[in-house]
Amino acid sequence: MLVAKRALKEETKTPLWGIVEQREYEAKKKYRRAHTFTMKLLTLDENLIQTAVKSLQHHTKVVSSKDENVLSLDDECIVLYVTLSKAVPMMTPLPVQVELKKCVQTVGFACVMLDKLPPEILKAMKKSKLLTNVKFKDYESFSKVHSDKAKFAQFADSFESFFCDANFYDKLPKVFKEFLGKRNKCPYPVALDDNWEANISNAINKEYVTIRRAGKFECRVGSVSMEAKDTAANVFAAAHQIIPHILLRCEKHTNVQMLTLKTKTSIELPIYKLKVPE
Known about the structure:
The chain starts with a helix and ends in a 5-residue tail after the last strand. By secondary structure, it is of the alpha/beta class. It is globular, with a radius of gyration of 22 Å. It has helices at residues 2-13, 19-41, 46-66, 119-126, 139-143, 149-157, 174-182, 196-204, 228-248; strands at 77-84, 96-98, 110-114, 134-138, 161-165, 188-190, 207-209, 216-223, 256-262, 269-273. Strands 8-1-9-10 form a 4-stranded antiparallel sheet. A 4-stranded parallel sheet has the order 4-3-5-6.
């Protein structure tokens, strides 16, 4: 009887799922813990954020009225910067997907990298009316440029974001991921199944942050043409999604020192600063 009880105890300790599922479960558990911790410590002032956004809107309006070469009011993006007390020691190739409260419209093109697809599917993709701001590139077209740094940089800068076929993601060269990762453009895998058009459309309407070897990370949270309250809501959503992922990959006792908002032509405006105990 005693042996049977011990065996039952051991069975209850053993997980009923495989190694992969267990790792995913542990990763989600760690993220939830970090997210709860972030929500408690990171107190953001909505009024302060809206004031900062309005200041950036005014600044862009003044600059664009003086200089015709500056991007129009609708195109200027507002970016959230997260500054840490210590740099992240290692890069994580898979970017963090950030779902904002309100989508930020982009003027640039997204690149979807493909391996080998049937010609009829590739033709249908290129003719898609829903994906007018998406360019499809096969592996041969970008494998030729990744050995030449100048051409590779030009290729990377010509697109706003990068995606790739989920089945092809692991085949991408590590050098390619690291190069794009430094530009915060590491490719995000997308399932190109029967719902490929909806999957790509859904993916390009989200923001992505590559956790690289750095002490500062950025995420687009709005544009100066958006309402201040919508941008503020995006700041809350982005901060609470990005920071737990970053802190999970940091050394112990790493803190978020500061959160700032910035446009291409402005200085950084602080919206959060770590309080040092007296």
